[in-house]
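Standup notes, protein team

Yesterday: finished cleaning the Algoriphagus aquimarinus set.
Today: Holo-[acyl-carrier-protein] synthase structure.
Blockers: none.

Input for Holo-[acyl-carrier-protein] synthase:
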Amino acid sequence: MRGIGIDIVEVDRMAKKCQKPAFVKMIFTAEEEAYCSAQGNAPQCFAARFAAKEAYMKAVGLGWANDAQFHEIEVIRLESGQPKLSLHGNTKLHFEKEGYSNILLTLSHTSQTAVAVVIVV
């Protein structure tokens, strides 16, 4: 294990932020936006994905100051339903440059909060 990150997000706060299209476009990929918008619990879905992105940045030591791009960190679902992070652009290059080999992700949420844990190996 090379890094671990955890983040918790208030669903109501994320719901308010997601009312602004510019915020959604800055943070989420088009696929994430489409997936979450189609869910009956869209605010929880967006909150969990935001938490995953934050947890990843904590696990690898990136942040806003390092020009991290949230939309380059995408939560996808495997056929099994398991969430997985898919990296793009400079975020993917950073992952490869640092010699990381795998990302483990778990998500959970209630009607009030969403949490994500990321382990980078």
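Follow-up from PR in the comments: DSSP finds five helices and five strands in the chain.
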